[in-house]
Specification:
This protein is of the alpha+beta class and 430 residues long. The chain is 39% helix and 22% strand. The protein has 15 helices and 16 strands. The structure holds histidyl-adenosine monophosphate.
Length: 430
């Protein structure tokens, strides 16, 4: 049997890549408009980075990391998310020494999580993320939410929900933890086995559990927004005011707690209503203690990540058309072996003029080359060979009208260039 791709991975075949490139281009443009610069960090890091950064009580670190010892006996982990590596690079590259905020984005960073593959959940996926370092102000949070909504709007995705919450800071969260634990303690026997474990180490995550019995047991649970200290309360109020001021519809959802330990204050998720329930498309929040945790100076941060495969999945399920793969415009066929070289050289000249062109690589008969060119959907077909070649000419066929013209070999490139631009103009005007 032919070897299959590993479970939970996905090939991007050419028909998907053009949609992928369109998404990338949109993201790059919107990130640049907001002053974000691209960063690329390694696919693997020292395991300790994620244990410290993401948190050793999280599902990601406890159950989902691809961790191995390298030949030097070091514990290495394939990136299970994009923020920790970006923070490490920010600190290691001393980006904090320049003017702040430093605004960074990563595009289609491969992310690895050993999850149970199911709809929308892969073991390797790709994330676009934006991270802003060095601003405590909620304008930075609002800017990120607005930017991703612009991106999703340009991709024409509908039925989006913006869920925001504040999970407080080290000053106010312990008080909330206490209140939540007291509430949960009285209902421990109603919780699922995983949440019974979470109760001790990470009680906030119980609110995030999708198990029906946990949802029902926590219906009346105390909510973090009621326990915020003055600073967090003001931060959250300003964020809401900023979103309202620009008519961004949002919902305060106290159940958004996020599955990574580094968050402080704002957390948010952009969800999509699907027939299978709400799907998280994008997740993010503020992480004011993370840079310090990774060994850098005290520097607040805020960011988000969004999975490209989930965007593609939703574009398809909403029936949103994406650009088709780029096609070859000109095919240079050869008639007889003596025409192989001139056809090859003409193709190269056309490409140097920026024209998408190709020629035969299989020594096909002229008839077979014509069939192939037809399948490629070319606009112009050039035939090199026969008595035209002997007279220093080539034949050019308009594949749409069928009209054929003979052109001097030396003038073929100019003629083709002219003809293609006329065709494009015609197409534009109907
Ligand atoms: P996250 O919510 O774990 O956050 O992931 C962000 C997005 O990545 C999700 O909303 C989803 O689109 C996609 N995603 C996550 N897991 C999978 C999967 N198994 N298969 C396919 N897509 C997936 C983070 O990773 C944070 N680092 C985001 C962040 C950046 N927070 C602040 N800055």
């Amino acid at each position: 049997m032919a070897i299959q791709s590993p479970k939970g991975t996905k090939d991007m075949l050419p028909q998907d890549s053009s949609a992928w490139q369109w998404i990338e281009q949109t993201m790059r443009q919107e990130a640049a408009l907001a002053g974000y610069l691209e960063i690329r960090t390694p696919v693997f890091e020292h395991t300790e980075l994620f244990e410290r950064g993401v948190g050793d009580t999280t599902d990601i670190v406890q159950k989902e990391m691809y961790t191995f010892l390298d030949k030097g006996g070091r514990s290495i982990t394939l990136k299970p998310e994009g923020t920790a590596g970006t923070v490490r690079a920010f600190v290691q590259g001393k980006l904090y020494a320049g003017p702040l905020p430093v605004k960074l984005y990563y595009l289609n960073s491969p992310i690895f999580r050993y999850e149970n593959p199911q709809s929308g959940r892969l073991r390797e996926h790709h994330q676009f993320g934006m991270e802003c370092f060095g601003s405590r102000e909620p304008t930075a949070d609002a800017e990120l939410i607005t930017t991703i909504l612009h991106i999703l709007g340009r991709l024409r995705l509908r039925d989006l929900g913006v869920n925001i919450n504040s999970i407080g800071c080290p000053a106010c969260r312990p008080g909330y933890h206490q209140a939540l634990k007291a509430f949960l303690r009285a209902r421990l026997d109603q919780l699922c086995p995983v949440c019974k474990e979470r109760f001790e180490k990470n009680p906030l995550r119980v609110l995030d559990c999708k198990e029906a019995r946990c949802v029902s047991a926590t219906q009346e649970a105390p909510e973090m927004p009621d326990y915020l200290c003055q600073e967090c309360e003001e931060h959250f109020a300003t964020l809401k005011a900023l979103l309202t001021a620009q008519s961004t519809p949002y919902q305060v959802n106290p159940r958004i707690v996020r599955g990574l330990d580094y968050y402080t204050k704002t957390v948010f998720e952009i969800t999509m209503r699907t027939s299978r329930g709400d799907l998280a498309l994008c997740g993010g929040g503020r992480y004011d203690g993370l840079v310090e945790e990774i060994g850098g100076p005290v520097t607040p941060g805020v960011g988000f990540g969004i999975g490209t495969e989930r965007i593609l999945m939703e574009l398809a399920s909403q029936g949103i058309g994406t650009p088709s793969p780029s096609t070859t415009d000109v095919f240079v066929a050869h008639l007889g072996d003596e025409a192989l070289l001139p056809a090859f050289l003409l193709t190269q000249q056309l490409r140097r003029q920026g024209l998408k062109s190709d020629s035969d690589h299989n020594r096909r008969s002229l008839k077979a080359q014509l069939r192939f060119a037809d399948k490629l959907g070319v606009i112009l077909l050039v035939i090199v060979g026969g008595e035209e070649l002997a007279r220093g000419k080539v034949k050019i066929k308009d594949m749409c009208t069928g009209a054929e013209t003979e052109v001097e070999g030396g003038q073929a490139v100019g003629y083709i260039q002219q003809k293609l631009s006329e065709k494009r103009e015609e197409e534009k005007h109907g």
